[in-house]
Input
Amino acid sequence: MTPGGDHDHVPALRAEGVVKRFGPVTAVDDLRLEVPQGMFFGLLGPNGAGKTTLIRSIVGLTRPDGGAIEVLGIPAWGRGGPRTRRLIGYAPQEVALDRFVPVREALELHGRYFGMGRRDAAARAEEMLRTFDLEDKADSYANLLSGGMRRRLLLARALVHRPRLVILDEPTAGVDIELRHDLWDHIRGLHADGTTILLTTHYLEEAEALCERVAFMGGGRIVAEGAPHELRERFGAGGLEEVYLRVVGR
Output
């Protein structure tokens, strides 16, 4: 896309009237959301609010029952699906890593899966190993890594194919404070390079520190949205935690 062209005004992500039901339960209910290109956007809400279902619908793991999802103007389902998959880097909440493939090879295979040439995938894997301090673990297997190292590997894997939109579902869940701040630095650097980031987190201080704009989900819908300072002013709150308790708290 040409900088300054019309394509720059196409949102990185647009969801219009998205609905997803599981039997009698409506997990996502007529949801509308737009994330501009280059935005660091937080998606917040309690367990069961529909966040993960929405994300799985964006990345192609769960087919919505209604509505439309576009990634950089391309439909996420139907004929556009394969194209959008290459535009997205996804680090899921669950640490799902192949225990039978060494770390370096896992990164290379991920790049190849998303259409990279053999040499490019190998070079990019080495770059990710350096970036996330995994070089000395390159020949180890994921199941032998510490929890923090596995989190690093999930993020490295999500970035191998140079995605335009990176979706991070609870990326620092269960890690210690030092590693959390280390991952924050990596994520901030990624955003500084122009990558659009969609983050879900239960750590409200994380959203406050990182996100330019946040949306609160409740009952499968967006119930409040804005920049952190706008939301604090709107609800007369001292922080996002207080806003959270007012709009989606029990």
